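yo

u said u wanted the structure for the complex thing, so here. seqs first:
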Amino acid sequence: MGLKVVIVGAVAAGPKAACRLSRLLGDAEITMVDQDSLISYGGCGIPYFVSGDVADEKELRSTSFHMERNADYFQRAKGINVKTRTRALSINRKEKYVEVVNLDTQEKENLPYDRLMLAMGSEPFVLPIPGKDAEGVYTISDLHKGIEIKDLLAKGKIGKAVVIGGGAIGVEMAESFSDLWGVETSLIEFQKQLFPGIMDEVNSRIVEKSFRDHNVDVYLGEGAQEIIVKDGKAVGVRTANRTLEADIVVMAAGVRPRAQLALDAGLQVGPRGGITVNERMQTSDPNIFAAGDCVELNNLMTGKHMVLAMGSIANRSGRVAADNIAGIPSRFKGVVGSFVVKAFDVCAGAVGLSPFMAKMEGYDVGVAWFMASDRAHFYPERGALALSLVFDKKTRKVLGMQGAGPATDSLLARINAMATVLAAGDVSVDDVGNAELAYAPPFSSAIDPMNVAGYLAGNACDGKLKTVDFSDFLAWMEKPELHPDWQLVDVRSPNEVEPYTEKFGDRWPCLPYDYLRARYQELPKDKCLVIICSAGSRAFEVQVILAQLGYTNTLMVPGGVSLLERMGFDYLS
Amino acid sequence: MGLKVVIVGAVAAGPKAACRLSRLLGDAEITMVDQDSLISYGGCGIPYFVSGDVADEKELRSTSFHMERNADYFQRAKGINVKTRTRALSINRKEKYVEVVNLDTQEKENLPYDRLMLAMGSEPFVLPIPGKDAEGVYTISDLHKGIEIKDLLAKGKIGKAVVIGGGAIGVEMAESFSDLWGVETSLIEFQKQLFPGIMDEVNSRIVEKSFRDHNVDVYLGEGAQEIIVKDGKAVGVRTANRTLEADIVVMAAGVRPRAQLALDAGLQVGPRGGITVNERMQTSDPNIFAAGDCVELNNLMTGKHMVLAMGSIANRSGRVAADNIAGIPSRFKGVVGSFVVKAFDVCAGAVGLSPFMAKMEGYDVGVAWFMASDRAHFYPERGALALSLVFDKKTRKVLGMQGAGPATDSLLARINAMATVLAAGDVSVDDVGNAELAYAPPFSSAIDPMNVAGYLAGNACDGKLKTVDFSDFLAWMEKPELHPDWQLVDVRSPNEVEPYTEKFGDRWPCLPYDYLRARYQELPKDKCLVIICSAGSRAFEVQVILAQLGYTNTLMVPGGVSLLERMGFDYLS
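structre next:
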């Protein structure tokens, strides 16, 4: 007689654990329940199904070899008993059974277990604002919602869409409305940037610009205060500053772990609302395991608990839970928060701490921003990659990295490289400078962009690199009187600088980088020299040489004119 | 009075060190000499200049902001004195000067130094065969050779080319002749596979197939025995098996460190012929540093010395040398051998030890091979990524990874992820299974291919995954009588298997994966069952289930039919 295992939840962590268990313990009796009729699907694929990239929702719930992963499949191929449309009502930990109800027949039954696994996932946070329950207001809580939205799109019923929330799901949904379907789309984010908390401001602005370039309106620092309803149907969204018309409103304001079942059963639940588990994915009841979006994970960068709803983590943590249920002492040590997202023709990614999070943790935060070609600068098909390396200035410890680049895998290649090594232990900015990323001209430059980020961070720690805050720079360009003691120096070639000097006169003079040693006396000694070039390398070098020549009151503009343009600031337009 | 620094060699490590030094020590007197007239160029870009991807050789020796890096530029912009066409003849360590000669005027002079840096690079190995010195026989020793070859191509003087050597340079040169110029190209490699030593056989075969698909003839296991010469000009290459006509012969049979100058000066030189340095890039003379192709590096995977000629490593090690010359205790700890190369529409890459190298080191070597989609299987624009994870079966320690994929950055994203973490310390197959690579459907699958590689390796260590050797499988398909006790079982869907059964009859039967539990009794118990599917996941699962059912004499075909096809074995053709 094999081990009786009940699994609650059949989307990602649940099915992964069930399949692994059936391979580990051939005689286990595995029962998996889910309140939904559709199971074992790639929830992260919903925006791509809505966008039309994925033609049929069945593809999201099929194996890579095109077999539909329904209850029948699990039974036939895996020997796993699946009960769909079946909700878990309560856990009797003493007698070890789960009370479930069939949502169609209302029949209840008790499922006995030797080991229980909780994989209920997360649910979207619904903003408590008027109109939230109106027809046409959606959260991306499950595949059904995706199917409904796509149906509306296909029938031409959506001319205008408002997406609330500038995180990954909001960004992906906004793209999916706009790109193929041509819906007039607005994206609202309560914080002052996209991907608040996760990304630095610079890289989030690159994504923002890509939305504006593709005619998606982005409103930052504006919360949705009310959904305007007419005849029971959402027709718009009101913020403090404006009212936006809408045929559909998508709320993508984050998710919350589904932990009520655990809480009711007296299991320990953490401050973030997720089920508390140890590295074996075991809850406070040794016979009950949990994995996926419903648990709190150890943030390897802070040592604190966090919730992180990702299909990838759900799968991996689910597998670890299965191992431990089967007696294999696998460990899930925690997460560093690897993240990547596509938005039209750009992608953005992050790992570890953003500057904001790093400050919250009390670090003496430095950020090395810059922009470089993602392949050898002489190789024809290259893209511009912006990277921000976040570090502690005191200890040179790397805290995180964010980036934005073309919608290829070039950013992924750097985020992944940082993710594995951050998870393995302390990394210094010098380690990043020496990281041995693979090199050939079609794939990188001899000094990889990530190495450059490490070099810059090291130079910043050594006091050699002093960068201007973007907000200061932007404010000064707007109102020069704010910093009357500043003077811009553009060290690009005269032909590059000419149009700027033409437009800005004395405010934007040129002193070509390669003539600095001959002409540096032209520079004023009583001003803070703000040095700019096309991508940052010349400006940095000029800063160093000027310091050697006694000009120490300098700041350079990281990423230069190119990065400013990528962020949407084209001073010639 | 600043530090006097002399640098010998001005291609990669030398200029990088010179520039870093001029930033660190504003008053240093830096003199860089090179025997060539062209300096500071991207040597790795030569095949892309020859191919036509890069239009002008000047691009290879320009900055990213299009400024030519000649002697004048170094003087003007960096304050570095460069003497081109100047060969270093000897080092007087006692009196601390380098004797140099101007190759144009034959004038000699002594350059005094406080610190000397050696960055002479490497030189191609010239096979000691008849005809090696004939006109039309090239090595890719410097940019001049690239310019000469491209000139011949542009003038239509090359109809047929033979490239000797199946390493990175040989592969890139063969592609560059064939792709745009349409030259009839043959690639000869003495060993039985491309990238011998560095890559596993499976992935090298994927590259090989891409060459054959693009009409490049590949001859493996055939050494060039003679270059056939007519009127002083190379007209062909003779191997043991054939004679190939050629208008040009490129020898790309590896490189050797240029260490004679160091050897003559009594500096320590290692068994691989490279200058011995410590982690500070300091030679056995504390005033003399060395970096780039001419030194031996610490192989972090073996603890042994190796030579590794890469522009990326030259730059990074050159910077570390400069730091130490300036009194900053930077360290270059060693290398894991990250490697990536493009060949037409595929790319191949490696890091750490290949199966061959791992066996040489005495490990109990396991290899987890497989093939997967490089993005979510439902995402439209995806490619097939083959990965081979090399590990020690006893300790579960990861020794290396090789792969082949589309000519995008998807393989790079996995090679880099492995490179940084391997360099940081011991990695287990379980760590790879849990590696937190960034996930979104346009960039990966929820379980990243690298995670799968880790899972498979773990299963192999646990004795759950038993794979057939490709050579055994190929031999058996060729001559079934070799393994009369074998029986193939294809567990794909009947419609997938039908054409195979039609062609091979009883030898290629179908037992659909999802009906295994119902029909397993059909399988013979007295044979070794060789289980195959499309990419390996079903075959593995069947192997596990069969073991639970008492069928333990099984092998599965890793990567399945897809991987066999990618290697050039299409059993339906």
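Chain B touches chain A through 113 residues (CB under 8 Å). The mean pLDDT of chain B is 96.
cya
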